[in-house]
Design a protein that fits this description.
Oligomer: single chain
Number of helices: 5
Radius of gyration: 19 Å
Strand content: 25-35%
Order of helices and strands: HHEEEEHEEEEEEHEEEEEEHEE
Distance between the termini: 14 Å
Structural class: alpha+beta
Strand order of the largest sheet: 2-17-4-3-16
């Protein structure tokens, strides 16, 4: 258990990102980047305070030419993957009908932030196959710790949760049409407010809380994923690549539900539920 370091990291960077939220709220829509609807703004970009270097220095508009540079920190594409922060994606998930016979560590069963493990009132992210014959539940008490679950249902599946932002995103686990595995970079990045609001409005991201269920997704220091196929960096909040070979690409969103375990199981009696490590294997 290496919780102290990532907890400190999340709180400090979350507070830091929140401190510039007001500045990002004024981010101009007249960006040299294509807008989320695919159009290209024609207005002349005006200076704003939406992008900062790692030392807090504003990056001039004329020097920003990638999506990553329009968020905070604007140097995200120069940041290296941090493999030892203690947040490890699940890559070989295991399942059961419940947790009755599972070896479950205390950290997944109790705690102010992660809820009460898996009781009828515990919150899960639920996903069903398109034909309705398969259903699976991902307890937020587990995803809170690991942030990424690489899975396969009726398609390669990616289930993600960012505790700082209370944001969930479920998508197909494919990059450029090819199945791949996603990991945690150990970096945080705050999207420009205009892109974050678009992601919420279009349903690419949803709010969730391990203790309260549905919640408001907060545009703060957000989980940055990477794919093993190309090494590109992806914003969890935007479900979009912000650095690397696939920059600008979007993941294909898969419908999901935030519900209590009792509600989800009542609606899907044959559902499986994710078992936490050691049953499930992490990176």
């Amino acid at each position: 258990m290496r919780r102290s370091a990532p907890t400190t990291r999340r709180r400090l960077l979350g507070a830091l990102a929140t401190g510039v939220a007001g500045a990002l709220a004024g981010c101009s829509a007249a960006s040299p980047l294509a807008a989320d609807d695919g159009s290209t703004p024609t207005d002349t970009p005006t200076p704003d305070r939406g992008a900062f270097a790692g030392d807090g220095t504003p990056v001039p508009v004329e020097e920003r030419d990638s999506l990553g540079e329009w968020g905070y920190p604007s140097t995200i594409c120069e940041a290296e993957i941090q493999p030892d922060i203690g947040i490890r994606a699940i890559v070989d998930p295991a399942y059961g009908a419940d947790w009755a016979d599972a070896d479950v560590a205390k950290k997944y069963r109790m705690g102010f932030e992660v809820g009460d493990g898996l009781t009828a009132d515990s919150f899960v992210i639920g996903v069903a196959s398109d034909d309705g014959t398969q259903a699976r539940a991902y307890p937020l008490s587990v995803v809170w710790w690991h942030e990424i679950v690489n899975d396969t249902l009726d398609r390669p599946l990616l289930v993600t949760f960012c505790p700082i932002c209370q944001s969930g995103m479920v998508a197909e686990r494919r990059v450029g049409g090819t199945e791949t595995t996603f990991g945690v970079t150990g970096q945080l990045w705050q999207p420009p407010q205009i892109y974050a609001e678009s992601a919420k409005t279009e349903g690419r991201v949803f709010g969730a809380s391990a203790t309260d269920g549905e919640a408001e997704a907060r545009n703060s220091g957000n989980l940055v994923l990477y794919d093993e196929l190309t090494g590109s960096y992806w914003s969890q909040f935007l479900a979009r690549a912000i650095c690397g070979e696939r920059e600008g690409d979007r993941l294909t969103i898969v419908p999901s539900t935030v519900a209590t375990w009792g509600e989800w199981r009542a609606d899907h009696p044959e559902t499986d539920v994710l078992l936490p490590p050691p049953a499930s294997t992490v990176m």
